[in-house]
Design brief:
Blueprint: E1 6-8, H1 9-21, H2 26-33, E2 46-48, H3 49-63, H4 72-78, H5 82-90, H6 94-108, E3 112-118, E4 125-132, H7 141-159, E5 167-169, H8 180-187, E6 198-203, H9 204-207, H10 216-232, H11 238-249, H12 257-263, H13 268-277, H14 282-298, H15 305-311, H16 317-328, H17 332-339
Antiparallel strand pairs: 1-2, 3-4, 4-6, 5-6
């Protein structure tokens, strides 16, 4: 049985502290969201992704602010990435740290993925791409926006110099005009909306800026501690890494097992053997990943059914419809109605 993704106690505790600073009654919000506030003091606690999304929904509703958390000061003060932050702070530069973050993100939240993409146009730079998933609830835009802002203020804190993005993209629709000022103040520019991914473009010069607190010995130690944490979470398992690659590749079409194996720097035969040792098949992982993403996309009205079929790598809608009947016991349109009821 596939465990539902969730976030670390440290990260969620930071979110609740930010909401408290905004004047919200977090104890009541957590109770309504099904989160045990006291348990967030326990390092090993993981909070189910739907409860995290529900917390954001309630926070926005109670505050009346659709830009909740969109403040550099709040993100800088309350965002908490715990052990991963220590690893980043002891690394040589942002680029080296973020290359590791693609794997280390699961310590903060395995409901969020992160990867770097080299920018093909303009001055040398890299896109920081983040993808947030849900379980049965849509992903609130504030959850994605706060995470992206956290990444930006983290860059400034690590390098001890102002880091400004060259561009910021969000998948959410444009905000109302009065709210644009909050985005401008947070990111130093007005992001583009209705985009294909949540991402931020940083210059290569910023990413290669030396981190003043770099310490090779501490970096090696913190990397080892993060890897231990990943192992305890089951994120060092080959199956977890395969699912991450499948999710990333699906919009380009159904990924072949041998292609995923190559991305993991192993032969197809070795990948099969590793998956057999974990009592799972590539086809199972492909199906599980598609089902999880289908649930998320169907909860987001901005995607048509045809677009979702494409995002899941199906060659046509009929295959997507048959898969939905197998996964959810009903066609995708009816399942979408239930999710948004």
């Amino acid at each position: 049985m596939t465990l539902r993704p969730g976030s670390s106690a440290a990260w969620v505790r930071g979110v609740t502290d930010m909401m408290a600073a905004e004047g919200l009654a977090v104890e009541s919000l957590c109770t309504q969201a099904g989160i045990d506030l006291a348990s967030l003091q326990q390092p090993q606690t993981r909070v189910d992704v739907d409860r995290v999304s529900r917390l954001w929904e309630l926070g926005v509703a109670c505050s009346g602010k659709s830009t909740l958390g969109l403040s550099r000061e709040l993100a800088s003060r309350y965002s908490n990435i715990d052990l991963v932050g220590y690893s980043l702070a002891s690394g040589p530069n942002l680029l080296a740290g973020f290359q590791d973050l693609s794997r280390h993100m699961a310590v903060i939240s395995d409901a969020t993925s992160f990867h770097l993409e080299r920018d093909a146009y303009g001055a040398p730079g890299y896109w920081m791409v983040m993808n947030h998933v849900g379980a049965t609830r849509p992903v609130p835009r504030q959850r994605a926006e706060y995470s992206m802002l956290t990444l930006l203020v983290l860059c400034t804190w690590l390098t001890r110099r102002e880091v400004m993005p060259q561009a910021v993209d969000f998948v959410a629709p444009p905000p109302k005009e009065p709210e644009e000022a909050a985005y401008q103040a947070a990111f130093g520019l007005l992001p583009r909306f209705d985009q294909e991914a949540n991402r931020m473009l940083l210059s290569e010069a910023d990413l290669l800026t030396p981190i003043p607190t770099h310490n090779p010995e501490l970096w090696a130690l913190h990397e080892k501690l993060v890897e231990t944490e990943l192992d305890q979470l089951g994120q060092t398992r080959v199956s977890a890494r395969v699912c991450q690659e499948i999710a990333r590749l699906l919009p380009q079409g159904e990924p072949r097992r041998e292609d995923v194996a190559a991305l993991l720097a192993m032969s197809d035969r070795t990948l099969q053997r590793r998956l057999q040792a974990e009592a799972v098949s590539y086809q199972q992982l492909l199906d599980d990943t598609r089902r999880q993403l289908a649930r998320q996309y169907l909860g987001e009205p901005r995607h048509s059914l045809a677009q979702i079929a494409d995002l899941l790598g199906f060659v046509d809608q009929s295959n997507f419809f048959r898969a939905c009947k197998r996964w959810f016991g009903m066609p995708p349109g009816r399942y979408r109605e239930q999710l948004n009821a």
